[in-house]
TrEMBL record:
Keywords: ATP-binding, Nucleotide-binding, Transport. Residues 10-250 form the ABC transporter domain. SMART domains: AAA. Pfam families: ABC_tran (PF00005). It comes from Christiangramia aestuarii. The keyword NADP does not apply. GO terms for molecular function: ATP binding; ATP hydrolysis activity. This is ABC transporter ATP-binding protein.
């Protein structure tokens, strides 16, 4: 790999995302060509059903692409063993079945699974990583609480801490701000932005918070009309990428304020 590309943690080439079906393939996005570097915060946006979750699952190897390639830190995703992959990508999915009976500390410790031995014994290094993750998201004070005692906002921070404890170059989150109020939506996305800059990790997340993403992200991936538009917020605004994202009779994109407005 060329030296100038050595900090690319995720790259796709002609990726086609969707579901193969006997009755005919469902193609959600074609020609997805993206590259995400260390320290970048990137949001995937698009209307309900555009394929955001499907894309994230494809990028993390949960489902197969219909066509094209995904490269994780320069290695083909299709050729990467699951145990190696878990040292490159941490995933925070909305439908994850996690026991809320665990304490905060126990749940964050699950992030160390790719590194622990078969009985899951934590070493000093694991404990250090766990404590550091708790510190980074500022939840040391609730470390002994049970997860079912937490608010949605606190629980989201715990999931982010678990991903940080996994200590991978790339973190992928599906809708990390669902169920949060406006303050906590902004808080969590700002936290993700800070984490990319402090830790050098790349963070990719799907979100409906387009106005916030426009202010906080280094790059955006817009899924629209089965195509993928990728670039810096200013570039995408300049090329009118947001123009027809929603039916125009109700919402329009105001270029001057770089935000969506209700008509
Ligand atoms: N396992 C599956 N098999 C076939 N089709 C699926 C499957 N999962 C999702 N779909 C379809 O793929 C399309 C995109 O779904 P997806 O969940 O990726 O969209 P999304 O952009 O994340 O939506 P939302 O914003 O509502 O969460 C939808 O039409 C959905 O019905």
């Amino acid at each position: 790999m060329k030296a100038e590309n050595s900090n690319i943690v995720l790259r796709t080439e002609g990726l086609k995302v969707g579901y193969r079906k006997k009755s005919g393939d469902l193609i959600l996005a074609s020609g997805v060509n993206i590259d995400i570097k260390s320290g970048e915060l990137v949001a995937v946006i698009g209307v309900n059903g555009a394929g955001k979750s499907t894309l994230l699952k494809t990028l993390s190897g949960i489902i197969q692409s219909v066509d094209g390639q995904v490269f994780i830190s320069g290695n083909k995703l299709s050729k990467t063993e699951p145990d190696k992959l878990s040292k490159h990508i941490s995933l925070v999915l909305t439908e994850q079945m996690l026991s809320k009976n665990l304490s905060v500390m126990e749940l964050v410790a699950l992030g160390r699974q790719p590194y622990t031995n078969w009985i899951g014994r934590l070493t000093k290094k694991d404990l250090k990583k766990i404590m550091h993750a708790l510190q980074l998201v500022n939840i040391e004070d609730i470390r002994d609480k049970k997860c079912h005692e937490l608010s949605d906002g606190q629980f989201q921070k715990v999931l982010i801490a678990r991903a940080l404890a996994q200590d991978t170059p790339l973190i992928i989150l599906d809708e990390p701000t669902t169920h949060l109020d406006l303050y906590h939506k902004a808080y969590v996305l700002k936290l993700l932005q800070q984490l990319t800059k402090e830790t050098g990790k790349a963070i990719l997340f799907a979100s409906h918070e387009i106005n916030l993403a426009l202010q906080l992200c280094d790059k955006l991936l817009i899924l629209k009309d089965r195509k993928a538009l990728f670039g810096k917020p200013a570039e995408l605004i300049e090329t009118d990428a947001f123009k027809d994202l929603f039916p125009g009779h109700l919402i329009h994109f105001d270029k001057e304020s770089s935000s969506f407005k209700i008509k």
